[in-house]
Amino acid sequence: MKTHSSTYWKNYFIQNASIKRVDWKLKPNLQESERNNILKSLQAWQLGETSEGEHLMRAAKQYSIAVNDAEYPDAVKLFIKEEQKHGNNLGKYLDLIEEPRIKKDWGDSIFRKIRYYNTNMELWTIAVITVESAAQIFYQALKDATNCNLMKQICTDILIDEAAHITFQKERLYIIFSQKNAVLKFLAYHAYTCFFLCTSLVVWHAHKKLFKAGNVSFSRYFNKMKFKLNKVAGKSILYPQKKQQEIQLLELNRSPF
Ligand SMILES: [Fe+2]
Ligand SMILES: [Fe+2]
Known about the structure:
The chain is mainly α. It has helices at 6-17, 32-48, 54-67, 72-96, 106-117, 121-144, 149-178, 182-213, 218-233, 235-238, 240-254.
């Protein structure tokens, strides 16, 4: 898999931060039924996107020393800044519709505990990939669950950012994975899958009302998550040599000689 340098990612984040995609002159326009469907999830994700990221920064710094990549923490810092922008935008929206920004949520508390004890870059990376994959479905559902143009613009902006976040993290997971021996690769591959799918179920449970309001049923959600898992941590991604060998074997079998 092609991976980019930390300098590339730093430049990407700096350039992306200069693009403003939300027109704050728009007034929110939310129906009562829409408010009822989205509010709890909107408040929970606003809180989730607001983290200071100090534990992630600590893990990134330790990791960068181990792999001798001095610019990696700078890229992670800019990545965290982009997540905080999402939290700020969702918070601004809550202020405009005169709803409170919450301070506590059970899902957020679990993730904060995990984050607190986690100093391992690999665990961070798979955790972030999982949450961001769910975020892509979540923000699309949020966008579809309302006719408010301001909300739609906020979601579109986040969706554009999240697509790059997943690539950023997917590349890191691949780099970490490729340095393992065969046994550890086998264990890690299954651990990623298990963590990703279990966390997906927790996210569904917490936000099913919003997903359904955005026309995402459980089977649609779970199929999308499995598809995303395959794209970020599937066999063809993590074991590209194996895929190459399979293609060569297939071509050999097809050959008349
Ligand atoms: Fe985000
Ligand atoms: Fe993100």
